[in-house]
# Entry
Amino acid sequence: METKEIHLNPPAGFYRDYLNQRTELSELFDYTYESTDWLKKRADELAKRTNSEISGINREDLVTHLLKTHSDLEYPDAAIENIKKLQKEEAVVIVGGQQAGLLTGPLFTLYKALTVVLSAKQQEKELKIPVVPVFWIAGEDHDFEEIRFVFKEKDGKWRKHPIVDEDVQCSASEKALPKEELFKWLEGVFESLPETDYTCELIEWIQQTATTCHTYTDFFMKLMNHFFKEEGLVFVDAHHPDLRRLETGFFKELIEKMDSLQKNQQVGLSEFVEKGYQAPIMTDEENAHLFLSVDQKRVRLDYENGYFICRNDDQSFSKEELLSILEAEPERFSNNVVTRPLMQEWVLPVLAFIPGPGELAYWGTLKPVFNLFDWKMPPLIPRIQMTIVPRAVQKWVERVDYSYETLLGEESEQLKQEWIKAQHSFPIEKVVEEVKENVQNVHAPLRELARDMDPTLHAMSEKNATFLMDQIQFLESRLHRHIEETHKHAIGQFEEAIFWLKPLGSPQERIIHPIILLNIVGQSGLKQILNQPIAVNGEHKLLFL
# Structure
């Protein structure tokens, strides 16, 4: 097993400009990406903030909460050791997060957590202060369609495999796992896995874990903890009721400053668009960037004319009324993509945040809202992007002398057609075009004659011409099919490589889930991956199994 870096130039846009350190983007951030000592400056700024008026959660309260939520995990020791580091005033965190997908969702979730762990280790060594890796589970997320499925292989294709469960618009941390349906769903996942030395042990572990879980977030956290059990990754369930009670003070500030929050968010969005980029998040001016649980459903709040209004509902509250609800039931409140980063900043001493490409863009709009609370927006370190290369695929690539940059960077079907053309010397397209042109020319006088004689005959002649073109097209398709059948084995190998490297024409990390990887490499193989010398530098990684 080894890793290799390749340079994949991302599509033109904000993410690529950020990696290339485009000068104009510095206006959108308080810390410039990869600038000299940017994380040292951030650590110094956090140290000064300790005695500021906005102190956030008391560290002892935070530590007590985290120790409690980690006590029933199967392998808590390394995480508990890191949690206790937070008792030290100089301790900071590297944080990244994701919603609670089934089987942890796509591979990029694993890569995000890996980036958090590697960055924390690196910065603890360089800054010589405790740096704790934290994974922020967006347990309040109620977008069930995003978390209810994984892709699995069926009949040589990647297909969505959703769990049968009702979407009741409640958060993942509150949504109970339907155990009977979950085990049926897991059987569908397992039957798609090829039998390896690790399959039986893997199935047994997942089934056993599932029996101990009550919610989607619970299942997610226990699987992720297992993956990173020796790395000390600390998990924050953002929608845990005990944490919500600790966050009451900042929800109060958000409500009281709502007029300014809305204004500053729109300013940040405008500044981003003025740089020439499309708006990464569409937010109405009336959006309050908060949600409230109403009748067990997570409902968006709007704010207009001094009142908070439940979207698609007739309930409304004055600031005073909403603050009263907050005081009595803080667990009913949750954040959206704008206020979630602010809540992270209030709860944790954030040295840096680890975004994916999409997250990076909407964070680029948030500087004014951070500044509203007299904070600087934390540094943003893009997460690792990686492609796993199975051994058979690696051998094929080496044999045909393709570059991974080409295979991963270009459109898959176009690559396939170009490759097929390179396997033969028959000028099919050229000859077909010449024949079409000749037939059109030869047939033209006949159509003209029919036009002069009778409109009905003219229409018939046009249909006749179309029929001839269709027949030529049919023959062309049969010629191509003959080529494909002749090179069936070679084409199959090409398709198998694309099937793994760029499934469904998308980055592998967005389609394949971690259990597919573990079925190939096992727990020991996952440990080897975590111990690979992987640099957090924005370059794409290849992992050869």
Observations:
- The longest helix spans residues 455-486.
- The longest strand covers residues 287-294.
